[in-house]
Amino acid sequence: MRAGIRIPGLALFLASSLFCLAADKKDKPKPAAAQVVDSGTFGIFIKGQRVVNETFKIEQKDGISVIKSQLKEIAGSDSSGQKSDLEITSSGDLIRYDWTEGSSGSLSVYPNNDFLTEKITTSANKTAEKAFLMPSTSVILDNNFFVHREVLVWRYLAADCKPEGGNQKCQQGPASFGVLVPQDQNSISVKLELIGKEKINLKGTERELLRLNLSGENFDWALWVDDHDSFKLMRVAIPADNTEVVRD
Fold first, then answer.
1. Is residue 237 a part of any domain in this protein?
2. Is 202 inside any structural domain?
3. Secondary structure class of 184 (helix, strand, coil)
4. Which residues of 192-203 are buried (b: 16+ CB within 10 A; e: fewer)?
5. Which residues constitute the domain of residue 225?
6. In this structure, what is the dihedral angle of CA atoms 129, 131, 134, 139, given to the nearest 10 degrees?
7. Residue 18 lies in a domain
């Protein structure tokens, strides 16, 4: 059952009110410092064993948001792991997305007229490009970066939940999003739906969080966010892969 929820301005990450810094000053304005919207670490567990850490930071400055993330395996790897850097505007338009994995290769995605262009560079320094007929407002959901799912949740809450009687009411039924998965070089459609408040056990403590369901053609995930802490992503469950993601 859909529930009315309160969404503070900070949580409406893609709403223009969050991205517009107050600049109503008589004196010459000083350059604004970047605002940290969220930062932390997700532990990624497979069959109950922690295998990867994702360290992330989301910053906003001058109408631009930058989402940085890095993956590091727990067991004995001295590699730098995967890194991603996503830049979007206040309206959710993609500016640029970059991904690297040490010396193994890299890729970039950027708007090009009515297309999104993906440029892939291999470890042998060979390059290739692939074009997708997708608008710049398309969502980037790259493999393994769960902070991208948090940004999608905030985007959904900002776009599909409206004020009503002092609360926020979300549309009935799931919302659909066009998504680009750069590592797979593939475009897909996903659905996100707010289910409502649910009590779960989180790191040994019972918590009441908001549950959302994220689904696509071949997957079904459950996501839980904290409506008392700017709707930050707290847990993800992927039953089909025996995988759980928990914020430290």
1. yes
2. yes
3. helix
4. bbbeeeeeeeee
5. 35-76+139-247
6. -20
7. no
Tokens representing 96?
């640029």
Gap between the Cα atoms of 119 and 152, Å rounded: 23
What is the tally of structural domains in the chain? Answer: 1
* DSSP result, 126-182: -EEEEEE---TTPEE--TT-THHHHHHHHHHHHHHEEEETTEEEEPSSPEEEEEEEG
Nearest Cα to 81, choosing from 149, 144, 152? 144
Asked whether residue 60 is domain-assigned, the answer is yes
Measured CA to CA in angstroms, residue 147 lies from 36, 86, 133, 137, 199 at distances of: 14, 10, 25, 18, 22
Coil, helix or strand at residue 238? strand
- Token readout for 22 is 């107050």
Predicted confidence pLDDT, tens digits, the chain (248 residues): 334 443 433 344 444 333 333 344 455 666 678 899 999 999 999 999 999 999 999 999 999 999 999 999 987 655 558 999 999 998 899 999 999 998 789 999 999 999 999 999 988 889 999 999 999 999 999 998 999 999 999 999 988 777 666 556 777 789 999 999 999 999 999 999 999 899 999 989 999 999 999 999 999 999 999 999 999 999 999 999 999 999 99
3-state helix, strand, coil in the chain (%, to 5): 10, 55, 35
- 94 and 102 in contact (C-beta within 8 Å)? no
How, if at all, do strands 175-181 and 139-140 pair?
parallel
Q: Which two tokens stand for residue 54?
A: 């994702």
3-state SS record for 44-60: EEECCEEEEEEEEEEEE
H/E element holding 42? Answer: strand 35-46
